[in-house]
Design brief:
43% helix; 6-stranded antiparallel sheet; 234 residues
Length: 234
């Protein structure tokens, strides 16, 4: 156990150096930002990547961006805005606030689910407890409380975790028992107000722009009609 903790401290120092280098040169290139992050963390045995935020800018020619949280044993580190291709943005548009990539003990997988679920069941991070109602739930150890906090609600019950693992075996994203996670999830809407504010602002801008175009066309039609009417009267 002590040996693993010592190794994790060394990995954390490496992560800081790697991420600093990565963030300074994240722009440009044909590879996805997620792939660059994975490459930069090649020597780190355990981490997960959460789609922390996303946005699109521009009207006629749109530019798309992601922001990620990288969870390691010690902390969660957020990236800056990173440009992504439109098709990749659309592929992940439903996964706001969710884990989209996991590496556990050297094994990588695209497990899409609520942040923190990927660490449940691992005795290094916590343990199963039983509440007064006889329900089994997962409790993270104190040093990993930041992982639990990312969930935005109470403990993870064993039944919820069973649904999560079942979804993974079926290669399906897990949005929670009541679909409270992901872009359309009730908890996500509380946790990510800036995303929804930006989206509403874009919708209002589009509606306003559409109304302006309609009014301009109607105005031109009326002007043209008056012109023709004047000609007929001569």
């Amino acid at each position: 156990m002590l040996k693993k903790r010592s190794m994790n401290k060394c990995y954390f120092v490496a992560i800081v150096a790697i991420l600093t280098s990565f963030f300074l040169c994240a722009c440009g290139g044909s590879r996805l930002p997620l792939e660059k992050i994975r490459t930069s963390l090649k020597g780190v045995p355990t981490y997960s990547i959460v789609l922390d935020d996303m946005k699109e800018e521009g009207n006629l020619f749109k530019t798309h961006y992601h922001k990620y949280s990288i969870i390691t044993d010690d902390k969660a580190t957020k990236t800056d805005w990173l440009e992504v291709p439109e098709n990749y943005y659309k592929q992940n548009v439903s996964f706001l606030g969710m884990t989209i990539w996991v590496k556990k003990d050297g094994k990588e997988s695209k497990n899409i689910g609520p942040p923190g679920y990927e660490y449940v069941g691992d005795k290094w991070y916590g343990q199963w407890n039983t509440n007064s109602s006889g329900q089994s739930f997962w409790a993270f150890y104190g040093q990993y409380h930041f992982i639990s906090a990312m969930l935005g609600h109470g403990p993870i019950f064993r039944s919820q975790y069973a649904n999560y693992t079942r979804s993974l075996t079926q290669n399906r994203p897990y949005y929670g028992t009541n679909k409270e996670y992901g872009t359309n999830g009730s908890l996500t809407k509380k946790q990510k107000p800036n995303f929804y504010s930006r989206r509403m602002a874009r919708m209002r801008t589009k509606q306003s722009s559409f109304s302006d175009r309609v009014n301009q066309r109607v105005g031109r039609t009326r002007t043209s009609a008056r012109g023709r009417s004047g000609t007929w009267g001569k």
